[in-house]
Structures are given as structure tokens and as C-alpha cells.
Design goal:
Layout lengths: L14 H8 L2 H23 L31 H37 L1 H16 L2 H10 L6 H10 L3 H14 L3 H8 L4 H9 L4 H24 L10 H10 L8 H29 L1 H6 L3 E3 L2 E3 L13
Antiparallel strand pairs: 1-2
Helix pairs in contact: 2-3, 2-12, 3-4, 3-6, 3-7, 3-10, 3-11, 3-12, 4-7, 8-9, 10-11, 10-12, 11-12
Length: 317
């Protein structure tokens, strides 16, 4: 019996389009919000209507008006200008910390999982030591010696205490991949260790590395905001945490100047939410069980998820 062939074979979709189509809705929403913050990071200093540090002779904060859309501080500084500049500073610090910490995690995690033996024990011991260190007290002490430091020294300190968890996850993933058939075949053909790590194992861990990077950026931003709020970081450099520090120290809550502390607080919440949603979405993309659990199907007119009990049709229908 002849099998009819389709008149036209549809063209294969681009890889980028297929990835976007399969991207969970959480990742899409988080990515859109994050892109908005990245745009503000790039254009914020240009769009700021005033110098965020410029002061006037006034002694009370002014409510939002046509000249100051988000009001002013008690010294006449424009809150909108501080917000546009502060978002960029917080995002840049988070991204810089994420890059450094993720690089350390990849190097240590892949090396420990693939090499095994004494190298694995030594690197795993190093990771465990950094995991049990009390991060917040150490950050306060270490950054206390860098009161006027820029983004790079602060990012290095945050990365030094934030890479270990990602290294543990990547080590476990590498242990599972190094016994795969394609890795064994690469070894038999005489491939060098670094080529196996870069071209055979690393591409299969991209989703895990991306989720680890997003989680590290979230850790860095929230930690830097908390440290700036308590006055540990440089309070003369505008960031979201610095705005909250000055609002708290000058009694913005007591005086009812909500426009002073609400915008940076909402910005921190939205930025954190975008990274959390993006991280959850990347987890679902990398883990088929999480992806399938979130899907619902209709069986016999009822909504059913794979996590629910197996449906039984009655009456032969």
C-alpha cells in the first residue's frame, strides 16, 4: 500500500526559536522583567534628570511633583535620579559577582567530578570548607576593611563566599556524565582531558550552569543591598541599598516620606522576583520531571497532571 507523502516538507525552525517556544512561562516573565532592568542599567545615567548627589538648602523631603516625579530627599536630592543610577550599580555588581563565582564553580566542579581520586577529595574538601563558613559575619568583617572599595573588590569578596554550592552541584552532574558512553568513546580515541571537559561534558551542563549563574546574581544583589542598608559598603556610591540606608538613617518612615524608600524597595522586590522566576524556569527546562509536572492534560473531560493518580475511564469511554 502506497503511503502518501506530504506535498511540502515544512522548514526546520531555528534553534533559537525552538528554545524560546519551549521556555517555561516563569522564565519568560522573569526574563522580560530582567531585560527592563538591564535597559535601565544601560540608559539610567543618561535618563536621570538631575545629578543624584546634588543637594539644595531644603530641610524636609518633598512629595512627588512635575519637577521631581518621585519626590526628593530631606536634602533636596532627586529620588528618581538616584533610582535610575542605583539600579545600574546593583545590577552590575550582581552580574560581576555571578561571572566570577560561576567561573570558580565550573573550574572546581568539573575538575573534581571528572578527575576523581585525590583531586576530587581535595577539591571537595575545599568546597565543603567554604560551604560551612558563616558568610554574613565574614562579609561584614572583610568588607569593613574596604569602606570605599569599588565594584570589583566587593564582587571578589562576594564570589569567594558564594561559589561553593554551585561547585557541588556541578561535581555531582559531572560524576553522572563521566561514565557516559560518549565520554568513554572520547577517551578511547585518545582525546585529551581538557577537550573532553570542554566539548563533551560542559555543553551538557549549560542549563545547570545558567541556573547557577542566575542564583548567584540573586544572592549577590540581595546581599549587597543588605550590606549597604546596614552601612558596611560604600554609602557615597548610589545603589538600591544605599538609597534604603539614607532613607532609614534620615527617618523617612517616621516622617511619612514613602516616595523615598518605596521605589528602591519595590525595585529590589521586582529584580529579585525576576531572577527567581528565571531560575525556576531554567530548572524546569533542565529537569524533564519538573517540566512534565507543571503540564496539565485533559482526560475524560477532567484536568489531569502527570503527578496526579492515573485516571481510570468508566463505561468503556
Amino acid at each position: 500500500m502506497a503511503i502518501p507523502l506530504p506535498a511540502q516538507i515544512p522548514a526546520a525552525s531555528a534553534p533559537g526559536a525552538s528554545i524560546l517556544a519551549n521556555l517555561p512561562w516563569k522564565a519568560r516573565i522573569g526574563g522580560i522583567i530582567l531585560v527592563i532592568f538591564l535597559i535601565i542599567t544601560v540608559l539610567g545615567p543618561v535618563l536621570a534628570p538631575y545629578n543624584p548627589s546634588a543637594m539644595t538648602t531644603q530641610s524636609l523631603p518633598m512629595a512627588p511633583s512635575l519637577h521631581h516625579l518621585l519626590g526628593t530627599t530631606s536634602t533636596g536630592q532627586d529620588v528618581l535620579s538616584q533610582l535610575l543610577v542605583g539600579i545600574g550599580a546593583s545590577v552590575i555588581l550582581g552580574l560581576l559577582t555571578g561571572v566570577i563565582a560561576t567561573f570558580l564553580s565550573v573550574i572546581v566542579g568539573l575538575s573534581a567530578g571528572f578527575l576523581g581520586g585525590a583531586s576530587d577529595e581535595l577539591l571537595s574538601l575545599l568546597s565543603n570548607v567554604f560551604l560551612v563558613l558563616p558568610a554574613l559575619p565574614l562579609l561584614v568583617v572583610m568588607l569593613g576593611y574596604l569602606p570605599n572599595a569599588g565594584d570589583l573588590p566587593v564582587a571578589i569578596v562576594l564570589s569567594a563566599l558564594g561559589w561553593a554550592w554551585g561547585a557541588r552541584v556541578l561535581r555531582a552532574q559531572t560524576l553522572a556524565l563521566r561514565s557516559s558512553d560518549y565520554v568513554a568513546a572520547a577517551r578511547e580515541t585518545g582525546e585529551r582531558t581538557w577537550r573532553i571537559l570542554l566539548f563533551e561534558i560542559l555543553p551538557n551542563e549549560v542549563n545547570v550552569i545558567a541556573a547557577n549563574f542566575v542564583g548567584t546574581v540573586l544572592y549577590a544583589i540581595l546581599t549587597s543591598v543588605a550590606l549597604s542598608f546596614i552601612g558596611v559598603l560604600n554609602t557615597s556610591q548610589w545603589s538600591l541599598g544605599t538609597m534604603l540606608y539614607w532613607a532609614q538613617s534620615q527617618s523617612a518612615v517616621e516622617t511619612g516620606a514613602w516616595w523615598w524608600y518605596a521605589p528602591p524597595g519595590i525595585a529590589v522586590a521586582l529584580l529579585g522576583m525576576s531572577l527567581v522566576l528565571l531560575n525556576f524556569g531554567l530548572d524546569e527546562l533542565a529537569n524533564p520531571r519538573l517540566r512534565d509536572t507543571g503540564r496539565r492534560r485533559t482526560v475524560g473531560g477532567h484536568r489531569w497532571r502527570p503527578a496526579d493518580p492515573t485516571p481510570v475511564r468508566q463505561g468503556g469511554r
